[in-house]
């Protein structure tokens, strides 16, 4: 595999940093190729705006069409084009970050805002002009694995935990970003109790990561329902005969 490892943690000596280094070594030991986007080390600019597209300030900025046009004409900011080159090279994306306030750090959100632009990761259409999304899209053919740490205990991020089930907490990223853009999304690896982790917990976390990385090429993705799989009506609402009476997020799985 060609793996792009996107890392969003400010401290390389953290548990996250140790897991990133360990995981990279595991992948290479198994013959895979790895490139990195270490967002804090890169001092990544997370703010999407007119500088991304060489915008004429005399005109109103419509960022979606502007980024699509800039990409088509080679006018996108160089740092965005560099990330596109990495994604084009990769067939697998590993996203690693600490879970902050039930979401990803702002620097990683800004990576998505600036890199997953219209006409590249979304806003693409088939030959009939229909939008390609939710199981199809600009990044179809890629696999994605989310690796995240949380200070919470595992029980608190379980199905009845006070924080919400971990996959529900990550649903906007897993389903609304990665699956939306066409990727095959693997179940996330969530390392809990990170704030209190000692050497034994570090070793267990590294072993769990090894297991996920060794099966990365063949593991079954989360079975999300594709938009065009016949499960949704014209208003993009799940058919009433599928998961009848339920409204939880798991209804979007087959």
Automatic annotation (TrEMBL):
| Flavodoxin-like fold domain mapped to chain residues | 1-212
Q: Which UniProt keywords apply?
A: Oxidoreductase
- Oxidoreductase: is it a keyword of this entry? yes
> Pfam family example for this protein?
Flavodoxin_2
In terms of InterPro entries, this protein maps to: Flavodoxin_fold, Flavoprotein-like_sf, NAD(P)H_dehydrogenase_qn
Family statement drawn from the similarity comment of this UniProt entry: Belongs to the NAD(P)H dehydrogenase (quinone) family.
What is the official name of this protein in its record? NAD(P)H-dependent oxidoreductase
What organism does the record attribute this protein to? Actinomadura nitritigenes
């Amino acid at each position: 595999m060609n793996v792009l490892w996107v890392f969003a943690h400010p401290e390389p000596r953290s548990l996250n940093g140790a897991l990133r280094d360990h995981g990279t070594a595991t992948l290479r030991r198994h013959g895979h190729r790895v490139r990195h986007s270490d967002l804090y080390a890169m001092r990544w600019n997370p703010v999407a705006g007119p500088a991304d597209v060489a915008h004429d300030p005399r005109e109103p900025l419509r960022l979606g069409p502007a980024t699509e046009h800039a990409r088509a004409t080679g006018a996108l900011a160089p740092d965005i084009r560099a990330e596109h080159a990495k994604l084009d090279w990769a067939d697998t994306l590993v996203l690693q970050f600490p879970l902050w306030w039930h979401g990803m750090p702002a620097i990683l959100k800004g990576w998505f805002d600036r890199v997953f632009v219209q006409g590249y990761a979304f806003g693409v259409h088939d030959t009939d002009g229909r939008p390609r999304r939710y199981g199809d899209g600009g990044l179809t053919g890629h696999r994605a694995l989310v690796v995240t740490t949380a200070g919470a205990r595992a029980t608190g991020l379980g199905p009845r935990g006070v924080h919400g089930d971990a996959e529900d907490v990550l649903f906007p990223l897993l389903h609304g970003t990665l699956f939306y853009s066409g990727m095959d999304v693997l179940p996330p690896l969530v390392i809990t109790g990170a704030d209190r982790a000692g050497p034994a917990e570090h070793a267990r976390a590294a072993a769990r990561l090894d297991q996920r990385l060794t099966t990365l090429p063949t593991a079954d993705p989360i079975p999300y329902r594709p938009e065009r799989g016949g499960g949704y009506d014209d208003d993009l609402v799940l058919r009433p005969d599928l998961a009848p009476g339920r409204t939880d997020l798991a209804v979007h799985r087959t």
